[in-house]
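Retro notes (design track)

What went well: tokenization of the new backbones is finally stable.
What didn't: we kept losing track of which sequence belonged to which structure.
Fix going forward: every design gets posted as structure first, then sequence, in one message. First example under the new rule, 182 residues:
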């Protein structure tokens, strides 16, 4: 992927209504982490059972220690509460080995800080709106991932942000990292 095209559609299509149904059930039963607005579907092998949904959320960088507390590849265990689910089917059938897998909510009128990640990120948009974008400041490229049931690869090693400038609608993506590229 080049800097002129930091996001590309992958020819991997999901059953979006089924995925939305499972996501809505998970959101209703577990709820998003209050600060990160995420729910993790993978965790580390040593994760305590009560922390399975939240160990992998948020930034992995420890700013106080100035180093990574975890790496994407550390989150290589699928949450056993969802065995037999469509989430598990995706975990097992995506065209790469999944490491960290999260539902990520961006409320209206929110923006992430500019950052870069250690490897690509793969997105499936579950809910979006006309005012939600990824933005790459160095190339001045913006991209909206549509809720069309397809997987999108993003070159997250480039500086980027995401924002939801809508007044009332959430943006919800299912986001994956690649075990071998992160």
């Amino acid at each position: 992927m080049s800097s002129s095209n930091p996001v590309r559609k992958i020819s991997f299509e999901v059953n979006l209504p089924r995925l939305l149904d499972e996501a809505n059930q998970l959101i209703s039963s577990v709820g998003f982490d209050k600060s990160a607005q995420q729910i993790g579907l993978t965790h580390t092998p040593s994760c305590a059972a009560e922390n399975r949904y939240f160990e992998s959320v948020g930034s992995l960088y420890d700013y106080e220690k100035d180093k990574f507390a975890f790496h994407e590849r550390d989150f290589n265990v699928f949450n056993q509460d969802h065995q037999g689910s469509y989430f598990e089917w995706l975990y097992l059938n995506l065209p790469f080995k999944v490491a960290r897998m999260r539902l990520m909510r961006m409320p209206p009128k929110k923006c992430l800080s500019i950052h870069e990640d250690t490897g690509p990120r793969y997105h499936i948009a579950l809910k979006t709106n006309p005012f939600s974008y990824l933005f790459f400041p160095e190339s001045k490229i913006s991209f909206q991932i549509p809720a069309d049931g397809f997987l999108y690869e993003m070159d997250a090693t480039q500086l980027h942000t995401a924002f939801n400038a809508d007044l009332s609608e959430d943006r919800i993506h299912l986001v994956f990292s690649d075990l071998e590229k992160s």
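Added context from the reviewer: The CA atoms of residues 2 and 155 lie 8 Å apart.
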